[in-house]
Design a protein that fits this description.
InterPro entries: EGF, EGF-like_Ca-bd_dom, EGF_Ca-bd_CS, NOTCH1_EGF-like, TB_dom, TB_dom_sf, vWF_C/EGF_Fibrillin. This protein is mostly beta strands and about 160 residues long. The chain is about 10% helix and about 30% strand. The protein has four helices and 15 strands. A four-stranded antiparallel β-sheet has the order 3-2-5-6. Strands 11-15-14 form a three-stranded antiparallel β-sheet, with no helix packed on it. Strands 1-4 form a two-stranded antiparallel sheet. Strand 7 and strand 8 form a beta hairpin.
Length: about 160
Amino acid sequence: MRSTCYGAIKKGTCARPFPSAVKKSECCCANPDHGFGEPCQPCPAKNAAEFQALCSSGIGITADGRDINECALNSEICPNGICENLHGSYCCICNLGYESDTTGKNCVDVDECAVNRLLCDNGLCRNTPEVTHAPAPRATSSGQKQTPVKISMSAHLIHV
């Protein structure tokens, strides 16, 4: 039987319903932290007998042995990247300015200022998660005109 799969359970309430109805094994075997059905119930815990029966081939595989396309199931699975379905799993291909965490399932902001301390020369480097635009040129205390420079997708020079 197909029903709603929920991407999260917050304070006992199901949240983030996925757009299409799926079978319980497709929802719960994709991630035991999901919720399923109407009314929504938490998916069985990984160590529960119900989970073992429902997901006998393991996480990422349906009860009948098919790969679950986590990317199609949850369109919000890789913010700041593109989801790539793998057999029994998925990974995130991250956007410019982001990199995969150790799991490969999350894209985290790269702090270019921390990676390269010389990036902003003698200015203040401020990491930002989006494309930045440099402010208009301004004079320094010595009267010299300086123009802030856009460094990359996620860092820019600030003269103080």
